[in-house]
């Protein structure tokens, strides 16, 4: 056990020596290792289903990047996306996720499943000069109709350079892709801003959706966002739906799509068609043999 600890601490020393700059040592290590992961294309794309709350019909999925670090194990995108942004790696990362997501979408189409796919854009990648062209090229390469791709942006990513961001969103819109405001309600959301963004969808942040269980203020907030979306002609997606009661409440409110652990956890993109098939088989009425 002592030896184990000694080993662990010597590794820590090695890691710490690397970190002499203003960024923390872990962050520096992650930045270097993320560069390698991108070069070797070892990041994975997982997908999480999205369904109509009333019927349970699965219409689309969100792509979520996954990184299993060779020594540290899984690292959360909440940790490494900001690192990618600060180290000039976000353009490459976004490109690889888009590529993996559209490749999956193309496979699903080939299997007769006409499903949408959503990809997250970080603040920095939204301002990348090459973004619009690279999205256009990726759609073309995979033969996916632009209307089947949704790009998710957060309010705060738009606010860092609103004029520029809105111009880029219009260019993306001109390609025919759908646009969504992710984590709605958490940023400096100004309602007049939402009206000016060329988006087709809002995603209610999961912190409010999880709060639906408590029957408190979040019920009113979620209802208000669903109504706002409807008045602006936007589709409303609720993320973080963890139980059937929450799904029922959202269905009653008129929410268009739900996403969350109750419907399905994020899974490797290759597992999505088998998951859909298993779900369809389970939903089929059981035929009892009366003979
Ligand atoms: P997000 O885009 O809001 O994604 C939803 C997050 O909620 C995902 O976390 C998902 O795994 C998690 N989630 C889904 N259903 C539930 C649920 O029922 N309960 C709870 N508690 N959580 C749920 P994940 O995958 O860790 O991603 C975190 C964030 O990292 C994402 O938030 C997104 O902002 C960012 N991210 C993930 N993949 C990418 C990517 O490819 N590119 C960029 N730029 N950002 C990404
Ligand atoms: Mg998202
Ligand atoms: Mg979200
Ligand atoms: Mg979120």
UniProtKB/TrEMBL annotation:
Residues 27-280 form the EAL domain. This is Diguanylate cyclase (GGDEF)-like protein. It comes from Petropleomorpha daqingensis.
């Amino acid at each position: 056990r002592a030896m184990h600890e000694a080993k662990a601490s010597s590794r820590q020393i090695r890691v710490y020596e690397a970190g002499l700059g203003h960024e923390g040592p872990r962050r520096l290590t992650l930045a270097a290792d993320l560069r390698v992961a991108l070069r070797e294309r070892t990041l994975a794309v997982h997908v999480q289903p999205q369904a109509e709350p009333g019927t349970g019909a699965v219409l689309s999925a969100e792509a979520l990047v996954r990184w299993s670090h060779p020594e540290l194990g899984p690292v959360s995108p909440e940790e490494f996306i900001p690192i990618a942004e600060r180290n000039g790696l976000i353009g490459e990362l976004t490109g690889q996720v888009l590529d993996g997501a559209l490749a999956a979408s193309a496979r699903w189409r080939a299997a007769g499943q006409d499903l949408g796919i959503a990809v997250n854009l970080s603040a920095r990648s939204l301002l990348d000069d090459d973004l619009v062209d690279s999205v256009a090229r990726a759609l073309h390469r995979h033969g996916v109709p632009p209307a089947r791709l949704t790009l998710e942006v957060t309010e705060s990513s738009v606010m860092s350079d609103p004029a520029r961001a809105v111009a880029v969103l219009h260019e993306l819109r001109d390609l025919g892709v759908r646009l969504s405001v992710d984590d709605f309600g958490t940023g400096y959301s100004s309602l007049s801003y939402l009206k000016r963004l060329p988006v087709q969808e809002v995603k209610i942040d999961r912190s409010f959706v999880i709060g639906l269980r408590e029957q408190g203020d979040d019920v009113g907030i979620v209802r208000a966002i669903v109504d706002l979306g409807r008045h602006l002609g936007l589709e409303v997606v609720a993320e973080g739906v963890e139980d059937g009661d929450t799904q029922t409440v959202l269905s009653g409110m008129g929410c268009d799509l739900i996403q969350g652990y109750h419907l399905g956890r994020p899974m490797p993109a290759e597992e999505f068609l088998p998951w859909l098939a298993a779900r369809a088989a389970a939903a089929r009425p059981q035929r009892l043999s009366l003979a």
